[in-house]
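Listing 4. Sequential folding, example run.
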Amino acid sequence: MEIAKNKEKIQEYRERARKLVEQMTLEEKVEQTLNWAPAIERLGIKAYNWWNEALHGVARAGVATVFPQSIGLAATFDEDFLEEVADAISTEGRAKFNMQQEYDDTDIYKGLTFWSPNVNIFRDPRWGRGHETFGEDPYLTSRLGVRFVQGIQGHDENYLKAAACAKHFAVHSGPEDIRHSFDAIASKQDMAETYLPAFQACVQEAGVEAVMGAYNRTNGEPCCGSKTLLQDTLRDEWGFTGHVTSDCWAIKDFHEGHHVTDTPVESVALAMNNGCDLNCGNLFHYLKQAVEEGLVKESRLDEALVNLFTTRMKLGVFDEKGKNPYDKIEYTVVDSKPMQELNRKAAEKCVVLLKNENNLLPLDKKSIKTVGVIGPNANNRRALVGNYEGTASRYWTVLEGIQEYLGDDVRVLTSEGCHLCRPKSQGLGMDDDRISEVKGVCAASDVIIAVMGLDSGLEGEEGDEGNEFASGDKPNLNLPGLQQHVLETIASFGKPVVLVLLSGSALAVNWADEHIPAILQGWYPGAQGGRAIADILFGEKNPEGRLPVTFYRSTEELPAFTDYSMKNRTYRYMQGEALYPFGYGLSYTDFEYNGVKVSTDRVGEDGVDVTATVKNVGKMAGGETVQVYVKVCREGTPNAQLKGIKKLYLKAGESADVKIHLPKKALGVYDENGVLQVSGEVKLYVGGQAPDARSAKLTGKTVTEIPVTIA
């Protein structure tokens, strides 16, 4: 029994924590509620900084494997692989921690409490932090979130490998520039159907050790001091027993931004009394005054400290060195060859093939003498890594990956083409100062690979250094700067063109969809990204990614960014036709579904099993994502929603049987009061894509529809 479920062991740790807390003075207790908790030498407590990040690799503390950004990992649609990546991340985290402890380094980003994953719903493509998430769908986010947490925390019966943190609880997805004062209004129905499921799954299935509140208010309450969220939902309804941390400096927003309190003392009292145990920031210094004035009971402060020290005990840091099996992880595993190989595999699995007219891809290097690689992301390291990133010992941009793959056999010409978002590349030059070079490269090339998109300087968190759009959110879905102009110039030469998009979110590449024969979505593919994309461009690997977000045609079809109603948002509620739909992605091979059936057409308490035989009928090995969608046949219900996934890997000509279980609750939807309703007629859809007309048009395939009735 792993520690997250080992109630007897957890109770033992809580008792040890209580005895430790009993010996502290009020001043000592207060200091331990800050993320930079100082040492208490008389009690044998070392200094500890709770703030560490591991969104897609151990971040901000030197060299570590930089995996693809979370949105890219989500495109794998592969639960097992997400846990494998998270396990690798926590292995490196332990290795770095063991080394740092040896040299008494207890600085920020040096602990074992990783504030990941981000399981917020990417409800609007303009949100700058959306690439930190697993996409727009609550089911996919839940499955990947659970497995990421399990990979981070490990499966030892006595100790956590590291502590994961589900953030930002619970209704948080922009706008960035008003997050410190914004009130996200969400109906009970949207809360239950969309915003809460991933958090609930992380708590109840994965036993996530920590939960972080959001900056904004939700339905009037600041999230880091919300009785509804932190007490009624998280603790009472879901039975969460870990610790709650604030987002960084969020508690001062109570009086400075949200104006729900008047003073810092009132703010810390609101947070602590409603279940926030740890303050990322310094405002909890006021807890001493709050306790002395009777605004916070010392018993509540003790409870918070027991939660915090229980986590540290689960991590084994209070036990004799060597008793914890993770103490044996050596620093040399960091950035090792196996880690680099796993990272390259991750980058390959993330890539989504959006278009491949007349099978232009894969390219045959034997028939090419000169390749032109053009675009601001062709040689842009920042477009590999996203945000909350570590430092790789070696980066492979798309240009470098292509150069390595082709070697001396094919000439590679290149041009930046344009700045990522500004009108010129050279400060003293004229606008569009690289266009002649673009034309020269195109004229001399047999094939052109255009590498466009965004990087974390354009989309990211509010206040990130170098953010060109100030808040981090996107003003629209267009290619920024002169990129569209450069792309059209490239196309005008009549050569075969492949567009590689590196971005953390959907872009409205409508013109490219009409005029460019092949398009790849590479996300922010990590330090090995360029090699992985080269492997796919030239057919060494088969693209298998699927879109975890909808690619819209424009922002005009979207509701206001500040509107948190799910109406007309994401594939589940949109009425229009997507440019590229959720769940969509092409392959170099082809898969055929046969014998699709259900275990019963009258579904009772045991749910229903969906089975099928999937065969690779193409000429190349590849990965197929089997997807099961559910449409409740009542007026006012969402479009068909993803409720089951299974990743298969089949050689050419190989087939496999697949079974996906749907519990009864997966066939229901929530009513306006947030109550699950499971009754009536339901349609199941089984195939390699969503059951929408646009997916059928793009793939030339349809999915199997099976009606069932709720018994």
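-- end of first protein; second protein begins --
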Amino acid sequence: MISPKAFDEAVSKAREIVSRMTASEMCSQLLHSSPAIPRLGIAEYNWWNEGLHGAARSGTATVFPQAIGLAAAFDVPMMRSIGDIVSTEQRAKYNTLSKLGDRGIYKGLTVWSPNINIFRDPRWGRGQETYGEDPYLTSRLAVAFIKGLQGDDENHLKTAACVKHFVAHSGPEAERHHFNSVVSEKDMEETYLPAFEDSIKEGDVNGVMGAYSEINGEPCCGTHMIEDKLRTEWGFRGIFISDCWAIRDFHEQHHYTQSPEESAAVALKAGCDINCGCTYRSLEKALSKNLITKDDLREAVVRAYTTRVLLGMAGDDAYSDISFDSICTPEHLAKSAEASRKSLVLLKNDGLLPLRKDSLKSLAIIGPNADSRRALWGNYHGTSMCYQTVLEGFRKLIGDECRIYYAEGSALEKDRVERLGEGGDRIAEAVAAASSSDAVVLCLGLDESIEGEMHDDGNGGIAGDRKDLGLLKVQRRLLEAVAGCGKPVILVLFSGGGIDPEIESLPSVKAVIQAWYPGEYGGMAIAEAVMGVINPSGKLPITFYRNSATLPDYSSYSMENRTYRYYKDNPLYPFGHGLSYTSYSYSNLSFDAENRKVSFVLSNEGPMDGEEVSFVWCFTDSEDAPSNPWLCGFVRSFVAAGERKTVTVDLDKRLGTLVDHKGVRYVRSGKWRIYVSGSQIDDYSLSLSGSNVLAAEIDI
């Protein structure tokens, strides 16, 4: 975290630099692609860079699992380590490429990550970029990732993180340029704001990006909340950035303003410093029309240059020695493999897994995602030097000891693989492969060509939201054909969220693994999990619903009957669910009120070493409380087979508070209940997980 003294010195230096700029030069520096000012010795700089789960869109980099997969690991220290690796590789690229004259897009040090929006609806294509549906989990992982990106030096930023998208943004993707998110004061304070507040107050995040949409009638990049909430109430001292071409939407889509210069003026005066896009080219015209003042302009440029000073762009660069050979080091690749293993969630296991090498003579690897690199990376990704698909993972792990059959089975969404082929042209081959094998690993789902960000100026034709939770028709046909062979099927699903509840009705599907988009080593991690080389340990950071029809309208931002905190029915798989090859039990719960910690004894009573994610839930009886107990602590612990260990968990600082209908957070004095378990504590979750529950009543 940057010290107050260092920050003040950076502001002073920035003011000195900006004081020598003309009005025209100041305007030019607030575009995402800021030109050089040769007479002042200022190099060109492109503010736009991405680092969601690895240095992105700039060539070779370590590719970690997509953000939703990282969230499934529930591992705060790992998130900080990954953030540190991402910043190291971004630094290496910047230091090397800028010396070679390449200062273009995605080559800078301002990293527009993480995405801390709440994954409120499973149809949202960009939900894969988030840390799931829970505000507390999102907050803890975001703060850790930000600290990793920005570094430990109190005088310098390693890279500058940017949380997005402020605020209450989670689809519909197709409507985002004109959509108005209507959010109650209670939902805003309780659900949509906490991760932003903690990112600023605890993470000291350097940047906040505004969303395309409106929030309660104001464009998010021109809302009064930038100054009132971020800067005044929370003490945010960094830069506010528009989403790309979002300010253009003020007049073209929202009809909030009438012209580009008016839109630029509204955004600038609201506190939006950097325009990703081109509307701030109209700032000079806005200045000539007295829509803004030079002081308005100057303050925005000073904030921007304070960031550049802290990054070492005005001299005194603390990280200039990070070189090109810091990219894709053995240590970075090992951390990527670790993350892939921890991200996998074993949703179902009817005793089939792990498979035993000594009794397995043949194995079929089938499906459009079985040998797909694209299924490994998710969106906003870099380019790996060492992808391992599922097929490659099994070949490497057991290929010398077991006959492996491979069949693509189908395309992802088209009804045929070959352009001139007939519909279902690979299904018969898949049936033959399955019938010839002792067991089948069937790899289905999606990739970034089907779910993700809608097509826009800043991306390459990504598909947007999902219409429903079902498998695509051609994959449903493949699944039924393979399952009909009668051989035991291990279904591996690649997606950003819950998919196809109907798989539960197929008796041949004995095991289900949620793989997310598992990163460059995802295929090997999946093979290791199936064969028992590793013990699955991921847990769901979102709810897998039985049917999207049970949810509120997609465009509703009310939390009523959304996410595990408010959902009224039994889901398909609940938030926090994830199976293991061993069994854990909980005992000896104690609560340290002074230090806000919970301790308990965690025992591994099964045959295999493992890592258990333990949850602490809280609840109190009040009309202001969520409907169901909610997360207030979690920890991942390694426990060897037969070991008993005492585990301590730090609790949410907001424990003991509730939010009323006016959006006011207050201390709820009196009796509260806390619970510890390896899943949620309702009967359905416990029946799936086999976990026991510890409970205690505490006084607040």
